[in-house]
Design a protein that fits this description.
The structure holds two protein chains of two kinds. Chain A is α/β, with parallel strands linked by helices. Chain A is 19% helix and 34% strand. Chain A is built from seven helices and 17 strands. In chain B, the strands form three sheets. In chain B, strands 3-2-1-4-5 form a five-stranded parallel β-sheet, sandwiched between helices. A five-stranded mixed β-sheet of chain B has the order 7-6-11-10-9, with helices on one face. Classes of the chains: A alpha/beta, B alpha/beta. Chain B: InterPro entries: DmmA-like_C, DmmA-like_N.
């Protein structure tokens, strides 16, 4: 059960290959009505029915929040992942009926800011597509620094340059172009907010430098959806529902709980929002925590787990679920 | 010490050195002592990047204690009103990495925070420490006039003359507590006036 969200019956209205790795998907409501409004940075959880198996993956909405006739997402193909992005790339065709969640925003703009400084890495560009559209419409002050591997993999770099010209600065890894982060952070006017979306290493680097250079944590916003990692199968006892289940190699703990007919709360399914936080009643083994929600102390305590992205290795695990 | 009551009533902490490139201190009277105490836990060279603006108040004490910290810049100001243009100018030209520290009376902390909010600083990122008077800036909800240094409960509005209950309800936007007519039903009813905000 997705907390506070309702599902939307949509139809795939278009599928557009963007480059070698990224494909864009357009969704419209099946009843022809407008979709719910959203703000820049919001995501939806897309349900992928693949035979017996249902995957639920979060994707940032990248269209303009001013246009709710359709939702658009861009999916980067991950050949070694758990198969969600491959399913999207291979199986999803125009005209297909799908279900997506209502939009949820865990990465919203702070509109009190005097200026918005955005740092994107790779496919982390998608929430900024919506945020820049929102700000541009309001005359907002923003600057986007976008790092990609090569020009041909710089998803939407051309679109962004055309729309916003010099407000967008591109950095290409293959040309050894790097953000001069310390200088960039030290020359921003007071009242600037910082937004970063990209690989975990980039987010950690930016947050760390910003903190050292005196950016208050209130001004630093980031989003990184952890994809559930495959791992060794393990058994779990669900004490409240009185079930014992097995989590397969390619399955997340949350998916295994759902497959057993138990309906825990969730929202982002990427270790960010905190909705699926679950108490551990007892355990004998070690946790593999992959979330951004629990504190380090909570990770060490062995008393809590985020079943959407985290796993367990050991003899026994009993959860309050 | 300001006691916690309703959620809008500001609470203050204890100053502590923050990571940053510049440190701006605005302080009045006994607030100087909070800065001097914080200096004990500050890393070496901390005040090389610091500016202290001090309103000494009527007894004129503590100036030497602040100068002894050898901040990069030190300014004395006779009143908040007189430092306001300078503060606005400083914040307008400042970059991210500037950290703000406010120490002293509630009136000073509130008014300096109001200017900082306009400059885009999040109020939760500002270091504050209350020292000295609990006298309140009060806005009359009826005539909107601001009365400074209110020490009594109830208090008389300096603008429209109504007798006002000084509430804990506080506005960061106007840096004032709310005053509401205490005898609106029967103006002849005059409750005793006590000095409570010292």
């Amino acid at each position: 059960m997705s907390t506070g969200t309702t599902k939307l019956d949509v139809v795939v209205s278009d599928v557009v290959p963007v480059n070698d790795l990224v494909t864009r998907f357009h969704f419209r409501r099946r009843d022809g009505e407008l979709l719910p409004t959203f703000s820049g940075g919001a995501h939806v959880v897309v349900e992928m029915r693949d035979g017996e198996r249902t995957r639920l993956n979060p994707y940032s909405l990248m269209g303009s929040p001013l246009d709710t006739r359709e939702y658009t997402i861009s999916v980067r193909r991950d050949d070694v992942g758990r198969g969600g992005s491959l399913f999207m790339h291979r199986n999803v065709k125009p005209g297909m009926e799908m279900v997506v969640s209502y939009p949820v925003n865990l990465f919203s703009l702070d509109l009190r800011a005097k200026k918005h400084l955005m740092l994107a890495g790779g496919i982390g560009i998608t929430p900024f597509m919506a945020q820049t559209a929102q700000l541009a419409a309001e005359g907002g002050n923003f600057e986007l620094h976008y790092t990609c591997r090569t020009a041909s993999l710089g998803t939407y770099a051309d679109v962004l340059r055309e729309r916003y010209d010099r407000r967008v600065r591109l950095y290409h890894d293959d040309l050894d172009e790097r953000i001069e982060l310390d200088r960039l952070l030290s020359t921003q006017p007071l009242g600037t907010h910082l937004y970063v979306c990209g690989p975990a290493g980039m987010i950690n680097w930016v947050r760390d430098r910003a903190a050292s250079l005196g950016w208050p944590s209130e001004t630093v916003h980031f989003e990184h959806f952890a994809a559930p990692q495959p791992g060794l199968p393990f058994d779990v006892t669900l004490a409240v529902s009185g079930k014992t289940i097995r989590v397969d190699e390619q399955q997340s703990l949350l998916e295994a709980i759902e497959a057993a007919g138990v309906d825990p709360p969730y929202l982002c399914r990427g270790g960010v929002c905190g909705q699926c936080e679950t108490n551990v009643i007892s355990c004998d083994g070690k946790f593999i925590h992959n979330d951004h929600w629990l504190s380090e102390e909570e990770h060490r305590s062995g008393k809590k787990i985020m079943p959407c992205v985290s796993r367990f290795e050991g003899r026994s695990l009993v959860l309050e679920r | 010490m300001a006691a916690k009551s309703i959620i809008s009533r500001p609470v203050y902490g204890t100053l502590s050195p923050q990571p940053g490139k510049h440190h701006l201190f605005i302080t009045d009277a006994e607030g100087a002592l909070a800065i001097a105490e914080m200096a004990g836990s500050a890393p070496p060279g901390f005040f090389d990047d610091a500016e202290i603006v001090f309103i000494p108040g009527p007894d004129g004490k503590h100036t030497a204690a602040l100068q002894a910290l050898r901040p990069a810049q030190f300014h004395l100001s006779p009143s908040f009103a007189s430092l306001l243009p300078r503060l606005r100018q400083t914040l307008a030209n400042a970059h991210m990495g500037l950290r703000l520290y406010l120490a002293g009376t509630e009136g000073l902390i509130g008014q300096a925070m109001q200017v900082a909010l306009e400059a885009g600083i999040d109020h939760t990122s500002i270091q504050t420490e209350h020292r000295g008077s609990l006298a309140r800036r009060m806005q009359c909800v009826h005539c909107k006039g601001i009365t400074e240094n209110v020490t009594t409960q109830p208090a008389t509005c300096a603008h429209c003359g109504l007798l006002l209950l000084v509430r804990d309800h506080y506005s960061r936007r106007i840096a004032a507590f709310q005053g509401v007519c205490i005898n609106a039903e029967d103006r002849s009813e005059i409750p005793p006036m006590e000095e409570v905000f010292r």
